[in-house]
Amino acid sequence: MSLEEHRKAIDALDKKLVRLLNERTGHALAIGAIKLEADEEIYAPHRERLIFQRLAKLNDGPIPEESMRAIYREIMSCSLSLEKSLTVAYLGPEATYTHQAAIRRFGSSLRYTPQKTIKDVFDEVQKDRADYGVVPIENSTEGVVTHTLDLFVDSPLKIVAQIVIPIQHCLVRSNRRTKVRRLYSHPQALAQCRVWMQQNLPSVEVIEASSTTRAAEKAAEDKASAAIAGSLAAERYNLQIIDQNIQDNAANATRFFVLGRKCGPSTKNDRTSLVIGIEDNMPDAIEALRKALEKDELLLNFQPVVDANSERVVSFEALVRWQSEDHGFVSPGKFIPVAEDTRLIVPIGTWVMQQACREAMAWPRGVKVNVNVSPEQLMEPDFADTVVDALTRSGLDPQRLEIEVTESIFLGDAEIARQALSKVMALGCQVALDDFGTGYSSLGYLRKLQFSTIKVDRSFVQGAAQGSSESLAIVRAVVAMAKSLEMKTTAEGVETEDEARLVCRMGCDRIQGFYFGRPMSSDDARSLFQTDYRELRA
């Protein structure tokens, strides 16, 4: 056939395709009307799956299976939008991976509404302002999205489908010619590309953004910058993709749930997800905790932290305990989450700060007190004033107070957290990063904030003691990094003499754990200074 004959054949086929597509859509509309009359869900993921399976069997090429799925995804998306005006809420902003997942599932013909938080997505669907919602549930590198799981506990919404997409991070920018001086991205994206960044952009300033989309937007505005983002964000902001698939794990993928008010019919090939919690035997826990401060039911225990070489006590970590008049001893693992969820952690944290500073005045001048601070406390506008007040009331030297935070502070508004901690450091207080390595380990903020101490999580300490090559490598890397940044390291969870000797040989500066002392009363803590520590353990 000649060129012209091929073109005429295509035109004739297009004529048939248009007629057949409209005929197919007519049947879809009729099915939609029947479903609406029977009060059934318009969206039927099980039916879509069967269609895609059938298409795969029918397709002999040359069109690839993935391309055929994409074509039919848009055909079905158009049909859905004509059957009913459907709205899909997703964790925004636009062009994020959640947005990409939603489009992959529903196509481009539906109405999409970005939401600021995962809870907002739940609310939009539950309040009937959206027909479906798309939220992340799990990443193969970073693990489960706990906030999504927590919301399922009390939500009446159903999981109607799941979406699994490969997370392929790209280095994007507007200008190839200018040297990259700043790199923007979401903390989790930065964590997933850590090795690539160290190899390719070791000296570039890393700036965390609220989303990969926001990072792409900043890169579009700042010609001397780049962003780690997805291809959809690059397209939205007209950025060039400089390098693709820069994530450290080639198999990096994220699983998303599609939320709805109803489930479809059983297909006998369904999946079940279980969320299991511990039954609450304290139904009045919130009110009881609210009154605990008034009734003087809270108290502090202190766990010693010793110098790795001399084994002398250098500080105590203040740990809050609750001896309830009605419920007896309540585990911190139970009441702390309640306090954080209800923001009662703010007044409790203030009390802990004041009591810990007051108690530290009874110790030798060289001994510090470590006080844990939650993200909720850091978000308070007057957090620095709270610290100043505790120091003023007690008379404690600011250099003897070390604030402990976890990597979870970077999951919220990281900039507010940074500013709050910077103010505290300006007072002369020190700041320790607790449980290092168990979150996404934001190296950018680690460098900017200049933490005084990095606390190595007990899981790595115990893993190293058991000969785990991965744990040994992590501990050595953390110690080396801390020394290069002029920070101290504290090994947590040390319970045996062998563990103590190991972390000392590996270069940890301080040690904390049951081997040197369990959390104790203020009186017992004071008595340690009248006793040689080696004699105490003997």
Write up this protein:
The chain is an alpha/beta fold and 538 residues long. Among the domains are: 1-84, Chorismate mutase (Chorismate Mutase Domain, subunit A); 170-243, D-Maltodextrin-Binding Protein, domain 2 (3-Layer(aba) Sandwich); 305-330 and 348-537, EAL domain (TIM Barrel, Alpha-Beta Barrel), CATH 3.20.20. The chain has 22 helices and 20 strands. The strands form 3 sheets. The chain has an 8-stranded mixed beta barrel, surrounded by 5 helices. Strands 1, 2, 3, 4, 5 and 11 form a 6-stranded mixed beta sheet that branches. β3 and β4 form a beta hairpin. α2 (45-58) packs antiparallel against α3, α18 packs across α19 and α18 packs across α20. The termini are far apart.
What would you say about this model in short?
The protein has 22 helices and 20 strands.
User: If strands are numbered along the chain, what order do they take across the biggest sheet?
Assistant: 12-13-15-16-17-18-19-20
The strand count comes to: 20
CATH architecture descriptor text of the domain at 305-330 and 348-537: Alpha-Beta Barrel
Radius of gyration: 28 Å
Portion of residues in beta strands equals 15-25%
Q: Give the termini separation.
A: 96 Å
- Top-tier CATH class of the domain at 305-330 and 348-537: Alpha Beta
Which stretches are low in confidence, meaning pLDDT under 50 for 5 or more residues running?
532-538
Q: Let me know the largest β-sheet.
A: 8 strands, mixed, barrel
Q: How much helicity do the residues have?
A: 40-55%
Query: What name does CATH use for the topology of the domain at 305-330 and 348-537?
Result: TIM Barrel
Class of secondary structure makeup: alpha/beta
CATH homologous superfamily placement of the domain at 305-330 and 348-537: EAL domain
The general outline is elongated
Mean pLDDT: 85
Tally the helices. 22
